[in-house]
Write a structure and sequence with these properties.
Na+/H+ antiporter like fold, six-stranded parallel β-sheet, Rossmann fold, mainly alpha
């Protein structure tokens, strides 16, 4: 016991020290934890030698990580995901697995006869890292963009796919129809039990302890380990049980409270899991490094092929098809979980597992930089893709423009289309529908392009920071030009630069721009704006009116008024 405590102490100390170094050098924390484990483990300095300690630390971390992954899987969102995400995720996972099996068998890895290296690697390479993607997209404020939503939807469905694999994984050595059906029956029994308890037993219990944080935390941990033990009794795994435990309470009323209470504990044990995983990585030889580089290269290429292709054929445009492919081009931390279960079951060689871990490290670093610079990569790639014959959504529009005299202008031009522009269009439609014929929109969101085109509104597909797009859209002929997208959502530009750019193309138009920060207002006027909208002022005015209504006992009337206004609107972006 004392040896285990000493080993955990070393894990935390080195994880923290290398984590600080990773933070200051802007590297993924998971990379720091893996290096920390390797450094103190039996293949490094040898300070942690006990295989029992490593196994206990790893299993505890794995249980908590899967429990938290389950908590973050919202089944309602999957149901509402829509055909684009469903088809994209299906194409990416099935295509990735098929390509993976064929590729890894072609390079000599086993499939069957007790060895399932090719199968485990194809599953591992089909999954992407939620930790890395969400962190970088959050920092870039791209989680709520169309490519961001597609990326997150694919990630959620990947987790469901991994659950299904873990269900049949213990029976791979004797994979018969009866065995598969028995495994599925066990999973169904586990899921039904967990859902029934979470629906009828947990809510009243958590309602009673909602004001006692320590009991909420203890209840969440008890639930996680209880379902884990039920899974063990059903000859599944505790890890899968913890995942089902998280999913089963992901939508119940206290899920947010449970998540908030368990998050700190989760971070602690996830750190331990990755440090323990680092301890199992041997000093690489040439063959391990070579296989790792092959795995990394295959992951990037297969992800681009299997993600870009279905999105392109679903007419999402080159940009919205490329960005999710770039976002997803790495190996998941869940992949390491799958690999480790394979090692524990004797299905995969240690050398193959080590190569997969090295490939994860390589892609974790490269992917962080690639996602951070995805807009520049996409802009450079679109030109190349067009030159080799791929058509973007602006192709049919360009042909129409040539027939109509190229670049027929509109009196009012909206550059960039997000929620403010959607609300503006709905307001015009309600108060002065005749004005819609005088309005043109420029944006590269395929949903916006297709919806506006379906409503008969003139729309140009393209990047508003591109000169050719603006010229083609008729900026030089417009009388009123509206920049409605805030700086936080603009890519490769900001409103001040856009105002200056637009003013150089049209010296006479009235330019209306948007500012998030008060200090930007003067800069935009200096750049040539005629009026700058500061949305916080209108928001503050509305909130003040709501407070007054509440003080006067008229909040219900105020709500009825806004409900009536909302019911009349046909927003492009709800």
């Amino acid at each position: 016991m004392h040896e285990l405590i000493r080993d955990i102490t070393l894990c935390i100390l080195f994880a923290w020290g290398l984590g600080l170094l990773a933070h200051f050098t802007r590297q993924p924390l998971i990379l720091a934890y893996l290096i920390a484990g390797f450094f103190i483990g039996p293949f490094g300095m040898g300070w942690v030698k006990s295989q029992e300690s490593i196994q206990i630390i790893s299993e505890l971390g794995l249980i908590f990580m899967l429990f938290m992954i389950g908590l973050e899987i919202d089944l309602k969102k999957i149901v509402r995901a829509g055909r684009v995400i469903l088809f994209a995720a299906s194409g990416q996972m099935l295509g990735g697995c098929i390509l993976g099996v064929l590729f890894f068998m072609a390079i000599g890895l086993s499939l069957g006869g007790g060895g399932f290296d090719a199968l485990y690697l194809c599953i591992a390479c089909a999954l992407s890292s939620t930790v890395i993607i969400v962190k970088v997209l959050y920092e870039k404020r791209e989680l709520d963009t169309l490519p961001g939503r597609i990326t997150l939807g694919v990630l959620v469905l990947q987790d469901i796919f991994a659950i299904l694999f873990l269900a049949v994984q213990p029976s791979l050595a004797d994979l018969q129809v009866s065995v598969i059906l028995l495994s599925i029956a066990r999973v169904v029994a586990l899921v039904v039990t967990a859902l029934a308890l979470s629906r009828y037993v947990l809510p009243p219990l958590f309602h009673q302890i909602a004001r006692r944080p320590e009991l909420v935390l203890l209840g969440a941990l008890a639930w996680c380990f209880l379902i884990g033990e039920i899974a063990e009794l059903l000859h599944l795994s505790r890890e899968m049980g913890s995942l089902v435990a998280g999913v089963s309470i992901s939508t119940f009323p206290y899920a947010l409270d449970v998540t908030a209470k368990v998050t700190t504990l989760r971070d602690f044990f996830i750190t331990l899991f990755f440090v323990a995983l680092g301890m199992t990585i041997p000093i690489p030889n040439g063959s391990v490094i070579g296989l790792a580089l092959i795995i990394a290269a295959f992951t990037v290429v297969s992800r681009l092929v299997t993600t870009f292709t279905p999105l392109y054929f679903l007419k999402q445009g080159l940009r919205a098809s490329l960005l999710p492919a770039i976002n997803l081009a790495q190996i998941s931390e869940f992949s390491l979980v799958v690999i480790q279960t394979g090692v524990a079951a004797g299905h995969i060689k240690t050398q193959t597992a080590s190569a997969a871990s090295f490939a994860f490290v390589v892609l974790a670093v490269l992917s962080t930089f690639a996602i951070g610079r995805s807009d520049q990569i996409t802009r450079a790639s679109i030109g190349f893709l067009k030159r080799i014959g791929l058509r973007d959504l602006d192709h049919s529009h360009a042909e129409e423009g040539e027939e109509d005299g190229h670049g027929e202008g509109r009196r009012i031009l909206i550059l960039g289309f997000f929620r403010a522009a959607s609300a503006l269009l709905s307001e015009i439609e309600r108060q002065n529908p005749g004005l819609l014929d005088q309005i043109g929109v420029v944006d590269f969101n395929p949903v916006v392009f297709q919806t506006l085109k379906g409503r008969g509104i003139h729309v140009t597909y393209g990047d508003i920071s591109n000169v050719d797009t603006l010229v083609h859209a008729g900026v030089g002929k417009a009388e009123i030009i509206i920049l409605s997208v805030p700086d936080s959502l603009l890519k490769g530009a900001n409103n001040e630069k856009l105002v200056r750019h637009v003013r150089s193309l049209n010296t006479a138009a009235k330019i209306i721009s948007t500012a998030d920060v008060l200090s930007d207002v003067a800069d935009q006027y200096a750049a040539g704006a005629d009026y700058v909208v500061v949305t916080r002022l209108s928001d503050a005015h509305e909130l003040f009116n709501v407070i007054e209504a509440a003080d006067q006992g008229l909040l219900d009337d105020k709500r009825a008024e806004i409900d009536a206004r909302l019911s009349e609107r046909r927003e492009v972006l709800p």
